[in-house]
Design brief:
Elements: H1 2-15, E1 27-44, E2 50-60, E3 69-76, E4 89-97, E5 100-109, H2 112-157, H3 162-182, H4 186-213, H5 223-229, H6 234-237, H7 240-270, H8 276-305, H9 307-315, H10 320-324, H11 327-363
Antiparallel strand pairs: 1-2, 1-4, 2-3, 4-5
Length: 364
């Protein structure tokens, strides 16, 4: 109960001062519905892409101006290529001036319902397949998302040190998630300590590699927009690169830690007389099988996220030397290698801690 109160207080403090209402002269994103098609000046090309514009009447469904109707012109091109129909729900940006709607821009179809439905399906399947542990995993996932979105990001925007704050909150997320999954047990504690070792190693390696290659948050996409539209200082913005790597790596590191700790626990239950040395050796053998797949998973995840950019670079006939020296490619390589090394270093840490704790618990 005390922990819940502390976490609730931290959420309130972190989000205090961020206005929930849209001030005059700013814009908000709302949901609207197409009520009439006034003009349709679109055409379909041979490649299946629709170009042109549509003049539509929409009704705003959310926000302080709910129920208001406005006309808006929607432009179709390669990126915005959905032909609107009456009844479609769309996401709109409403610009407010002196409390009234100044202008309204349609940004695309409203996808929130579909996304939430798929997320709900994922949670239901996880709960049904995992049983009690699946439900605990859902609780851990929800807690992690709340901590990152409503605690980490607001604290960053308030000027708290990016790297330290990220590591502290990820430590908290790791502890809560593993307590929910494993309880305060030998497996849970050894997984926590090993996971934090791996995340710490990832942070250190990313920092070293970033300094050697002069890669930091300033080389990230959209950093200029962040600096121009928020109160982020240039000093703290530099740490966003390491922060992003840590967040992306945590899940894989946690997975590896729990896998090894679970294997050692099962061996100990099957044969209570196994020594710490034999348990460690068994844990390392499991880890060797795991490290290859998890490292590949992590690197491919980074590569998949940057596939479009890599296609664009490759199509320009860039040489290997040019590719290996570009900020984007170097940053992705550092992400993948630092994260993979973090996973690899998690394995012996968990194997040592888990085998020693399991052996000691038997002796008691």
């Amino acid at each position: 109960m005390v922990a819940v109160l502390i976490f609730t207080g931290a959420l309130y403090y972190a989000n205090d001062g961020f206005a929930s209402e849209t001030p005059s002269g700013q814009s908000s994103h709302e949901t609207a519905r197409i009520t009439r098609i006034l003009e349709d000046n679109t055409s379909l090309t041979e490649s299946g892409i629709i170009f042109g514009d549509m003049l539509v009447e929409i009704e705003i469904l959310t926000g302080p101006h709910r129920g208001a109707t406005q006309q808006s012109t929607y432009f179709l091109n390669q990126t915005a290529n959905v032909h609107l129909e009456v009844g479609d729900r769309v996401s709109v940006r409403v610009s407010i001036f002196s409390g009234e709607i100044g202008s309204l821009q349609i940004e695309g179809l409203e996808r929130k319902g579909t996304v939430l439905t798929f997320f709900l399906i994922f949670l239901v399947v996880l709960g049904l397949m995992g049983g009690k542990r699946g439900i605990m995993a859902i609780a851990g996932l929800v807690f992690a998302l709340i901590s990152i979105i409503y605690l980490l990001i607001p604290l960053m925007l308030k000027g708290y040190p990016v790297i330290f704050t990220t590591f502290a909150i990820l430590t908290f997320v790791t502890i809560v998630s593993l307590v929910l999954l494993c309880g305060v047990t030998t497996k849970g504690i050894s997984s926590m300590l090993g996971c934090l070792t791996g995340v710490g190693a990832t942070a250190l390696l990313t920092h070293i590699a970033g300094n050697l290659t002069n890669i930091s948050g300033f080389n990230m996409e959209d950093i200029d927009m962040i600096l121009s539209t928020t109160d982020f200082s240039q000093t703290e913005a530099a740490g966003l690169f390491i922060s992003g790597v840590l967040i992306a790596t945590l899940g894989a590191v946690m997975d590896t830690a729990v896998t090894i700790a679970s294997a050692i626990e099962e061996l100990k239950l099957a044969n209570p007389y196994l020594s710490a040395k034999k348990l460690f050796k068994a844990g390392m053998n499991v880890g060797k099988d795991t490290m290859g797949t998890m490292s590949t998973t992590l690197i491919l995840a980074f590569a998949g996220g940057s596939l479009n950019i890599m296609i664009l670079i490759y199509s320009q006939g860039s040489s290997l030397n040019q590719l290996i020296n570009s900020d984007f490619i170097v940053s992705e390589i550092i992400r993948g290698i630092a994260g993979s090394l973090g996973i690899i270093l998690t394995i012996p840490a968990v194997a040592i801690i888990s085998s020693v704790m399991s052996s000691t618990s038997k002796e008691k």
